[in-house]
Each structure stands twice: as C-alpha cells, then as structure tokens.
Amino acid sequence: MQILFSSQQLNLTIKRLSRQLVENFENLDEVVFIGIQPRGVKLSDRIVNNIRHFFPDEKVEYGILDITFYRDDIREELHIANQTHVPFSIEGKKVILIDDVLYTGRTIRAALDALQDFGRPQKVALCVLVDRRFNRELPIQPDYCGKSIDTLESQKVKVAWEREEVVLY
Amino acid sequence: MQLSTKHLLGIKDLLTDDISLILSTATQFKEVLQRQIKKVPSLRDVTIVNLFYENSTRTRISFELAEKRLSADTINFTTSNSSVSKGETLLDTVNNILSMKVDMVVMRHSAGGAPHFLAKHLPDTAIINAGDGINEHPTQALLDAFSIVEKTGSLTGKKVVLVGDIMHSRVALSNIYLLKKMGAEVMVAGPPTLIPVYIKEALDVQVEYNLKKALEWCDVANVLRIQLERQNQVLFSSLREYNLAYGVTKKILDSLNKEIIIMHPGPINRGVEIDSDVADSHQSIILQQVENGVAVRMAVLYLLAGRQN
Question: CB-based contacts of B120: which residues, under 8 Å, 6+ apart?
Fold first, then answer.
C-alpha cells in the first residue's frame, strides 16, 4: 500500500485546485460547480467551501449530480442511485465537473450526457484529485488535476476522507 | 444491492429491503421528473410489452410514461384488437410476443394469479403485475406508500385506514401487505358485506364498521373505489345509501378534531365513496399519488431491468 496524499498534502492540493479554478474563471457569475456522486462530492464540498471563503460576497452556484441513470452497463451491473440536486439552469454557463478519481473516463462520459438534461453549457471543464492516466477507456482528460499517477488495472485508488489521505493498493 | 426477486408479482413476496430500495430509487426518479428534460437513457435497448387484459387508464398511462422516461422501447397490447378475441391462450400470446425478443412484461389481468402463471413458465422474462383480479396491485401500494412517506416522513407507526370495498380490492390487499411489512398500523373500514370475514385473523388488521370511528383513529385514510364492475351480487342496497353510511364527506372530516390525509387510488366515483369537495380539498393527495406513480414505476422497471443478466 502506498500513500499518495497525506493529510497535509491533501489539504494543500485541494487549496491549489481551488485557487487554480478561481484564477481561470474570474467571473463567478458565469460559473457553476458540480460534484459527481457519490465520492466526488466530498472533494467538491471542500473546493466550493474554499472558493466561498475567498469570495464571501459572491454567489457560488453549486450542485451535485448522480450519473447512475446515465450508465451504459445496466445489463451487467445494477447501481443504486444517489441524490441529484442541481437547482439552477446550466444554460450558457461554464460548468466545472468535480470528481475524486479519473480512471476509465466512463463516469465522466455519463456525466457529460447527464449535463445535457440541465441545459447547454458554454463550456465544461473537469477537475479531479487523482488522474490514473494510463487506464483510460475513452478520450477524456482532466483540465485540473491534483496528481497524475501511473497504475495497473489491478490496483485501486482510495480516497479515505475520514482519515484525510489517498492510498494506492 | 438489488431486489431479491426477478419479477414483481405482489407485495407479499417482497422483503422490507426490497420495498425500501424501490422507494428510495423512486425518490431519485422523482427528481428526474422535476427537470426540464424528464428523460434518462437507463433502459435504452430494453423492450417492454404492456399486456392489458383489463381496462385501465391511470396504470397503463403511468407505466407507459415511466417506460418512455427511461428510454425503453414499448409495445402496447390490449385484448380488444388482438388475437385474444380469436381464442389464443395467455401463454401462447406471451410466447409469441417474447419470441420477438421482449425483455419485460407488464401485465394486468382479470384473473388473480395470471402474472404468477406467466412467471412460472417464463422465468427469464421480468413480469410486472399491474393488477391481477382481486389479488394484488403492487405498484399501486408502492406509490401509496411513497406518497405517505413524502407527505409525512415515514410509514413506521402511521395509522392507515382503508375505507370501502375491501373484498374486491386488490389495492387493499397490496396496501395491507406493504403497510404491515413497513411497520404501519392498518385498519379496514366499510360495510360488513364488503369486508372478508376472516380478514382480522388472516392479515392481522383491525376491523371497524363505523366510518367516523375509523377516521378518528387514523392519520391517513385511503378511500377505495366501489368496484361496480365486480359486484355480481347485491352487497349494499344503493349507492345513495352507501354514500350516507360510508361516503367520506366534508361534514364528517370537519367533525374530527384533527386533519387527516385523504388518498384514493382512482378512478373516483364522486358522490359515492368520496365527495367532490373532499377529493379536491387540500387534505387530499390524490393527484400527488398519480404523479408519484410514474416515479415509482420507473424505479420498479429500472431495478428489475438491472436484475436481468
């Protein structure tokens, strides 16, 4: 087992991602943040909290998205749905999708499909904590990334939020 | 996590975990139905046939909408314009349809046990009971439960009275099974001729012949339809008399010292089992039930389609 992020590194990286996002998206009026259920939401909560802390007077639109109903593997495996809460239109907005680990890219593929049902965004960017860069099955890349790692298919990456660390095993 | 069953034949066969899973999945589908675009691609390439051997408006439309919102392909079948009128048997009809590669069958039939018969002969196809004779109507009970939970927060400890024609009501039987499994208290109320004699012992429910007492006891009253089409003997003297003794009227609700929730599975016989001003009042969640029906049926279809390997 290898520790990818200790608690301190995790905090620094999340702060860095938050700062990178506000650096590139100056006008928060036209940006919406969307965390992907279930595990991306922990990360997006932290990022959005940071951003609200940087700009306490600005309204930061934040939603959570569950992609279960957009998966392409219902005949192979049944997944249980989580809550979706996107209480605003994303029409013409810049959407920042946030997930913890980018692996095959299939979740993000489903999320892109799901987003269509909430409007036509002007732009979609992807922010992840860990990018398992050699395991992609679809042409999807992150725009903001905590750490890029090389892994085998047999390995697993786990973000343990309760211990504030990320491990590879 | 998945359902313990491949078919939805009745509430009787479900575990409490199954019911909770269906209700929680329905909550997520209800959110989908609030969106501007109310359609998800979950059941793309799943083909569903709706076999309705008996009349239905709400249930058929509700199932069909649920299927379309899930992007399934649907075929509708009603007996009046099919080969059933030429004398084809149920099993032959279904086998013929299935040989055209259908994944799921939603069936309503006037004979109790018809979906169980199909499930026995067609173990690989998901069969969903949309009402079989006077036996069960599981999706109605699920949507009733969903509506109660949505309105009051939970089923545990809730006092629910089913009013009216218990004897001929598949909605009543499914509701009793479900409410008991989920920890609610159940009472049936109506004229003695419309309540099966051994229901108290057989299903462990309370029986009350006085409507006012029943309504005073309950939190929720589910008023059942007088099934005029299933009465082949005279069990009460007239609709007018039924309304006088067992009709849920504004007057009787006003005389209670609390506000109860009024439900009805539809179609309503206005002025018989329920008066118009009650059916349209703010206490009534009849239209929410119909709305929730689509979400609950989406959940059932989704969970059963995912069960097929």
Answer: none
Map tokens 């119909």 to a residue: B290
Nearest 5°: the CA angle B131, B142, B162 is 80
CA B150 to CA B21: how far, in whole Å?
Answer: 15
Q: How far apart are CA B163 and CA A3, in angstroms?
A: 63
Beta-bridge partner residues of B47: B73
CA atoms within 13 A on the CB side of A2: 8
Give ipTM to 2 decimals: 0.83
3-state SS class at A15: helix
Token pair of A119, please?
């409007």
* Contact check, Cβ <8 Å, B308/A75: yes
pLDDT digits (tens, 9 = 90+) for B214-227: 999 999 999 999 87
Q: What one-letter code names the amino acid at B77? A: F
Q: Is the peptide bond before A87 cis (omega within 30 degrees of 0)?
A: no
Query: Is residue B223 within 8 Å of residue B186, measured between CB atoms?
Result: no
Closest-CA residue of chain A to B308:
A75
**pTM, two decimal places:** 0.91
Nearest CA to B85 among B76, B77, B96, B75? Answer: B77
A79, A56 Cβ separation under 8 angstroms: no
Q: Which two tokens stand for residue B230?
A: 């299933």
* Interface probe, candidates B31, B33, B45, B124, chain A, greatest A C-beta count within 10 A: B31
